[in-house]
Amino acid sequence: MLVSKIVERVDIPHEEGQWVDLRQLSFTAIEEAGKVKQRKGVADVRDMGGDVFEAIMRSSKRQVDDDDQERDPVDSYDWETLINKALVGWSYDGKPTLERIRDLDMKTARWMAIEICKRNPVEDEETAKNG
Q: Would you give the distance in Å from CA 74 to the centre of its chain?
């Protein structure tokens, strides 16, 4: 299915009367948001130095094994990329630009990223095999 024309208006629950128009994302946009998140994470760890990097990698491996099922899908993606790719309109003054997206408060940005993920579910390997 081609998704670029699929747009849904969604009310912002914590801002009465405010809404956003969200476009469904293509697979390349979703992949890009994941890759941006990974690159930022690697850069952050690299900036910490070698010993810290090794400790984080050991801890990360244990944590992934322990709670892989509990991970929130929105945390796998760069929110700015998701929002920039999906947001086509809003009730705020002016058009949504990257600069204005970066001016969103944390609560609204997280809510919007979650809504985008809900509308663009990515099947894991197990679901894809069984579906």
A: 5
**For the purposes of burial, counting CB atoms within 10 Å of the CB of 112, is it exposed (0-12), middle (13-18) or buried (19 or more)?**
buried
SS (H, E, C) the chain: CCCCCCEEEEECCCCCCCEEEEECCCHHHHHHHHHHHHHHHHHHHHHHCHHHHHHHHHHHHHHHHHHHHHCCHHHHCCHHHHHHHHEEEECCCCCCCHHHHCCCCHHHHHHHHHHHHHHCCCCCHHHHHHC
Structure confidence at residue 40 as a pLDDT band (50, 70, 90):
confident
**Considering the entire predicted model, what is its pTM?**
0.76
Predicted confidence (pLDDT) per residue in 48-62, tens digit? 766 666 766 666 665
